[in-house]
Amino acid sequence: MHVLFVFLLCLRKNVNTVILETWSVSTNERKDNMLGKIRLVSSLLIALALISSSQAQGQSQIDFRPLTQEMLNDPDPEDWLMWRGGYNNWGYSPLDQINRENVDQLRLAWSWTFAPAALGSNGMQVEPTVYDGIMYIRHSDEKYSAHNAATGDLIWQYSRPLPTEIVAGDTRLSVHRGRGVFIYEDKLISHATDGTLFALNPSTGALLWESVMTDFRSGAQPSGAPVAFGGSVVVPYNCTAWTAADPCHMSAYDADNGDLLWRWYTSPTAQDPMHSTWGDEPQIYPLQRRRNMSPWMTPAVDSERGLFIFGVGSSAPQQPQLAGTNGEWPDRLYQGSTVALDHRTGALVWWAQHHSDMWNDDSVYDRILVDAKLNPSAPNSLGQNPDIDPDQTRELVIGSFSKDAIFYAYDRTDGSFLYARPTAYQNVIRSYDGATGAYTTEPDAIMTAEEGKEATICRENRQIPQGAYSPLTNAYYVPAFNGPCSVMSMRSTEPTIETGYNTTYSATVPSPAAQLGQPEAIDVTTGKTLWRLERETPLYGMLTTGGGLLFAADTNRRFHAIDQWTGETLWQTILNGASDMAPISFAVDGRQYVAVIAPSGTQAAAQHAGQLGLSSLTGLHNVGHTMFVYALH
User: Fold this and answer.
1) Is residue 197 within 8 Å of 253, Cβ to Cβ?
2) 92-93 and 543-545 beta bridge pairing
3) Sequence-separated (6 or more) residues with CB below 8 Å from residue 245
4) pTM for the full model?
5) Which residues, 6 or more positions from 349, have their beta carbon under 8 angstroms from its beta carbon?
6) Does pLDDT of 497 surpass 80?
7) pLDDT tier for residue 60 given thresholds of 50, 70 and 90
8) Assuming Cys at both sites, which of 51, 237, 297, 446 could form a disulfide with 364, CB separation 3.0 to 4.6 Å?
């Protein structure tokens, strides 16, 4: 076999950048050896990256302490170690130097402007990681950097090349979609648009190893921030119905070298008893024909039991009738569900299904792990378990899991349903059986497999921007809004890669709700509303702190500090655009900081700006993002 590699190594001033300009491969081997060739290319890229890493800007390396499993289980309050800050996904910092009494003294400490997002990207949807006074961040153009978290000064920067097909837009992938990095022991772990998992040296930015998880030509791609526990790194995947023809999965990789440890398919295999939820044999849609069901957001980790807990998105086809089922619980698992997997083996420990997803309701959002007593008396309850003991402290998984923004509480030891209640206006779920958790779908929302079938669906009430929990109030804060309702129409009775979900939106109609923005604080014990705001502009990703504050930004460039107990805005400033990803908080040498990125990185903020007639910059404008970092004056 003859292999010819032509590389251009470009060392830019003060930037650790390796650019792969061209490479070609001449071989007589069959196409199924492609991944082997990619691994060979990867080994040469590692050598190049090691050369380039010595050119990092600023100090030559960070005095890095390995981040152990014990430290990850019990984070230092001064750090922000992962997506949502910790394994429990609270989005909470215990730091209290900035509090309700002095937040009006908050001032800009430093800022950092990133290059414009590369073509094909909606912008940054990232939470930075902060450890030992160093901030590590993924950019929206396959770059990664380390900064002094007290000043923003650049320490090192690393850049990855992408294959020409991706850069040219030939793959229909969501380019540069990565929501963070993860530090495990002595490695900074992330993934690239081309399906590669890799590890950097946190001290220098040098590439340590990389491993091809999937051939990007399959149409599947890594999406959410990785998370590691017990040596297993899981990578949230997006297998969008109009790009990926193969069954989707959640997979774990060895934190030492990227080797595949296990793979769990998000649709039941023939050996799984839940295989029958896809209809009688011979099934119309056996495993190899089922599409999407993407687990595309970062799991929570039950560190006591060693469980990855996460949600699974909608399936294709969307209509139960096309698959030969009636849509009743449980239907076409594991779409519309929360699942818990053993971190060592990938074995399914429990599941709980929230709906039969006929509307791309995408049940992938906040799974927050909380211990609390329950005595539900929620307004407009959708269902309540009759056997709840109000004196028993329950181990819970809570949150608004789907776009409909319904709030749920389940027992995270076995997936038992406890209670559910609505937040913003929705018309897809009528109720839940309190004993079993079985859902009842609103009859008018059922999408049958009829040519010309239409239904008006109101469920666009939240998207990627994160909710948060505070132990000070025992409240969950949901960034809910009342988006327009969609008139959904049947597109095809035979879903294909071209037709995607086989439904389409033929029109939009206003929500019956009077206002767009409707953030809410919900008491976890009772399900009652602690407060709810009726706002013109939605609040987006949320951070709670030990100072009794809730930080969130809105569509109209305003960044707010809000009283957790009352919902009153105590401080605000103006950013350079809409901001939708959650802020973070950290401390360096005893000084607390709050960091937020603008403009926004999701489509929702851009849609809301257009709906409200606002001129706020969003990530869709392909402008450079800025990190704004605040501290007390």
Assistant:
1) yes
2) parallel
3) 218, 219, 291, 497
4) 0.91
5) 305, 307, 340, 341, 342
6) no
7) low
8) 297
Helix (H, G, I), strand (E, B) or coil at 413: coil
> Is the pLDDT at 44 greater than 50, yes or no?
no
Distances in Å between the Cα of 130 and the Cα atoms of 127, 182, 426 are 10, 10, 38
Pairing mode of beta strands 337-342, 307-312: antiparallel
In 326-471, which ranges are E strands?
337-342, 348-353, 368-373, 383-384, 393-400, 407-411, 417-421, 429-432, 439-441, 454-457, 468-470
**Whether 459 contacts 403, CB under 8 Å:** yes
Q: What is the pLDDT of residues 587-607, one digit of tens each?
A: 999 999 999 999 998 889 999
Dig out the tokens for 111 from the structure.
Answer: 């800022």
pLDDT of 451 above 90? no
- Report d(CA 610, CA 621) in Å as an integer: 12
Over residues 357-371, the mean pLDDT reads 96
Q: How remote is the C-alpha of 228 from its chain's centroid? A: 15
What six digits make up the tokens of 291? 């599409």
In whole angstroms, give the CA distance from residue 620 to residue 342: 38
Query: Would you call 89 helix, strand, or coil by DSSP?
Result: coil
Tell me how far apart the alpha carbons of residues 158 and 146 are, in angstroms, rounded to a whole number.
Answer: 9
SS3 sequence, 525-544? Answer: CCCCEEEECCECCCECCCEE
Q: In whole angstroms, what is the distance from residue 350 CA to residue 314 CA?
A: 19
Q: What is the pLDDT of residues 197-225, one digit of tens each?
A: 999 999 999 999 999 999 998 888 899 99
What are the tokens at 162?
């992408």
Dump pLDDT digits (tens) for 467-485. Answer: 999 999 999 999 999 999 9
Q: Which amino acid is located at 604 in the chain?
A: A
Contacts of residue 316, Cβ cutoff 8 Å, sequence gap at least 6: 241, 290, 291, 292, 495, 500, 501, 502
- With a CB cutoff of 8 Å and minimum separation 6, the contacts of 593 are 109, 149, 150, 585, 586, 587, 629, 630, 631
CA-CA distance, 97 to 449, in Å (whole number)? 57
Which helix H or strand E contains 39, and what residues bound it?
Answer: helix 34-53
Say how far apart CA 425 and CA 85 lie, in whole Å: 30
What tokens were used for 459?
């469920």
Q: What's the Cα-to-Cα distance from 136 to each of 79, 130, 446, 626, rounded to whole Å?
A: 11, 6, 45, 15
Do 521 and 476 meet the contact criterion of CB atoms below 8 Å apart?
yes
Q: What are the tokens at 13?
A: 């001033």
| The amino acid at 53 | S
Report the pLDDT averaged over residues 50-57. 39
Percent residues over pLDDT 90 in the chain = 75
HSE of 481 in the Cβ direction (CA atoms, 13 Å)?
Answer: 28
d(CA 575, CA 623): 14
Question: Which pair of tokens denotes residue 397?
Answer: 């998984």
Phi and psi at residue 621, in whole multiples of 5°?
Answer: -80, -5
What whole-number distance in Å separates Cα of residue 435 and Cα of residue 429?
A: 17
